[in-house]
Amino acid sequence: MMRQYELVERVLRYDPKADETLLNRAYVYAMRAHGHQKRASGDPYFSHPLEVAAILTDLKLDDATIATALLHDVIEDTEATRAEIDQLFGPEIGVLVDGLTKIKRLDLVSKKAEQAENFRKLLVAISTDIRVLLVKLADRLHNMRTLEHMSPESRRRNSEETLEIYAPLAGRMGMQAMREELEELAFRWLHPEAYRTVRERLDRLTENNKGLVEEIRQSLVEKLGEAGFSAEVAGREKKPYSIWRKMQNRQISLEQLSDLYGFRVICRSIEDCYRVLGLVHTTWRAVPGRFKDYISTPKQNGYRSIHTTIVGPRHQRVELQLRTEPMHVTAEYGVAAHTFYKEASLSNGKASLPDASREMGPYLWLRRLVETLLEGDNSEEFLEHTKLELFHDQVFCFTPKGRLIALPQGATPIDFAYAVHTDVGNSCVGASINGRQMPLSTALRNGDEVLILTSASRTPPAAWERIAVTGKARSAIRRAARDSLRRQYAELGRRLLSSAFAKIGQDYSDDRLRRALSRLTHKTVADVHAAVGRSELPIADVLRAVAPEAADLLPAASRPRPRNRYENGEGGDEGWFNLSKVIGLKFRWPTSTAPGASSAGQGIVIRGIRNDVPVSFEPGGAVPGDRIVGVLTPGEGIRIFQIHSPRLSEFEHERWIDVTWDINQEEPERFPARLSVTVLNEPGTLAQIAQVIGEADGNIDNLKMLHRGADFTEMMIEVEVFDLAHLNRIINGLKSKSVVSKAERVFA
Ligand code: MN
């Protein structure tokens, strides 16, 4: 295990100004915190954070990052707290360690292949600081290096995650060396047979072609020397995993791979890169379509090089990469590369790093780089399917089973529910976020675990459409509302038909109607029900189709007539007039004299407001205990009036429907009523009114000042109450106040 002074010396070697005390304190703190904890290998646990720190010294990272590496597991695995880290090491390191703790918690959820891209984005979103990702990658690298001590199951899982999430992330950050080592380790554990085979064939091929490779290299060096260039030419070792992947993708054998022979030419300047390119292309034939100039157009992750493939001395395809030394370091270490090029190399003007890094400080520059890197990348592999400019507007949440759900910023549990499944959305009644029950309007945040509470057979409230932000949720809510309304009309239609058949002494059944469908213009029984409920199809037409023998009873006036006549604005009332006369429906109050007294098959029973038939209340409202009348209105269902409502007289008696209350005592609902209240003009009057109503458990829905005189004000209050007794309690309560001169119910 590395000694304390060794680690500190490594840091001081590349950064003499590093905070030695900080490193020592972090070392001692982490070692004590992990105490006697052991790794699966039997080594002291502390050897792990120490090795992670060592990996990061290879990348020459700053003292805060090294200290973070030492501390990266203490919050999750020991008694240490964020507050303690903040206090002892300052908030900068506190934030970094906290980021790693959050990521570690995410490690517990499953990451399926199809979620990998989202998971990478989540990692970046949670990290907020590039150094958190660098420590995380080093952490993963060390765990992969010591995987042999783990169970076969966790080897497999770790290797899969590494291939799907961490290696591509390293690649996206331009860290090729890190990416290759992660890939090779994971490949070995995941596909040991394939790894061995590729490795052996690759070794054999290298052995057989040793002469050839050296010959190509020699002739390159010769040509360059003759032309007066001093450039370094190195053979490029191909890695088993990248070869295996190419073989898989292109279904070809190892020997058929064209770019097995790769060389890297490190030139002294950018100008030299282009001159060497010219020389190479005039000496050997270039393979068409294989030339790429990433020097003039760097990749988003900062990668710069010229790529070309030539037909070499022995008619072998040879892949060449031309680059300068700084470009080479950037290619290997990506976002971590800047540490190799502090003031000194930037000042020669040839470094591949932007001058801005000096003004912004290295890490602010790094953050900017990562932002650009994630915003849009022309690098081939990982971004083709993803519009990353959308990335900053996204949040990533989990189901309790670990499925990752990506949503737009501002999304709510309702959006989440519909993203999981439309049925889940439609039956959603509540949500628990990270174990706490929260309102459905809560805006979700990155990493939230969301549990949707559901209840069978429920229609999503229309108001949800305003809460939801995703198109999927909104259109599903609209569709559910339409379906529900349609069901309500169908139910109303079915009841109207039953009632009408009973009046002519016949039994209604869906089967009878089905057999008569050919005589009607509707395809299904439900369609007929809905059309009757909406008053688009006269009941008389249905009677005539189902029971033609009863047609004799029908007067000429109600013989077949044009459809949609209500839309023409004429005849609507007449239609209902005729119908009720013909079939003897006396939808007239008070044919049954008390609520609940109407005989089965005659009255329409109203249960609550959220009904299975479409019901609306007139402005004056009506509450259980009131005598009520329904008025059947084409396209609007049943409008409910209190029997004393003056507006009721506007409708012919023939359109009145006998309706009765059917209240579910288990789940009392509120119903609307209007009060007219006259009060003295005194300070605090309104507060007293509101208090009386509130204390009596009434809901004030609306309040309007109608008339303001010198001494008195008349106001209209819309309240919601459970029943008539409740309403009367409120009225009496109001009357008992000395400031109230009058309180009474009104119906319009
Ligand atoms: Mn760790």
**Any idea of the CATH topology of the largest domain?**
Hypothetical protein af1432
Count of DSSP helices?
30
Structural class of the secondary structure composition? Answer: alpha+beta
Amount of helix: 40-55%
- Residue-averaged pLDDT: 77
Q: What small-molecule ligands were found?
A: manganese (II) ion
As for the number of domains, it is: 6
Topology of helices and strands:
Elements lengths: L3 H11 L5 H15 L12 H12 L4 H9 L2 H4 L4 H8 L1 H16 L9 H12 L2 H16 L6 H21 L3 H15 L1 H17 L1 H17 L5 E5 L3 H11 L11 E6 L2 H14 L1 E2 L5 E2 L12 E6 L5 E8 H9 L9 H5 L8 H5 L1 H14 L4 H4 L10 E5 L5 E5 L4 H8 L1 H5 L1 E6 L2 E3 L11 E5 L9 H4 L3 H33 L6 H6 L9 H9 L5 H8 L25 H12 L20 E3 L8 E3 L10 E6 L3 E6 L13 E6 L9 E10 L4 H11 L3 E10 L3 E10 L2 H12 L4 E7 L2
Parallel strand pairs: 2-6, 12-16, 13-15
Antiparallel strand pairs: 1-2, 3-5, 4-5, 5-6, 7-8, 9-10, 9-11, 14-15, 14-16, 17-19, 17-20, 18-19
Helix pairs in contact: 1-2, 2-4, 3-4, 3-9, 4-7, 4-9, 6-7, 7-9, 8-10, 9-11, 10-11, 11-12, 12-13, 12-14, 21-24, 24-26
The site of manganese (II) ion (MN) has 4 residues, from loops.
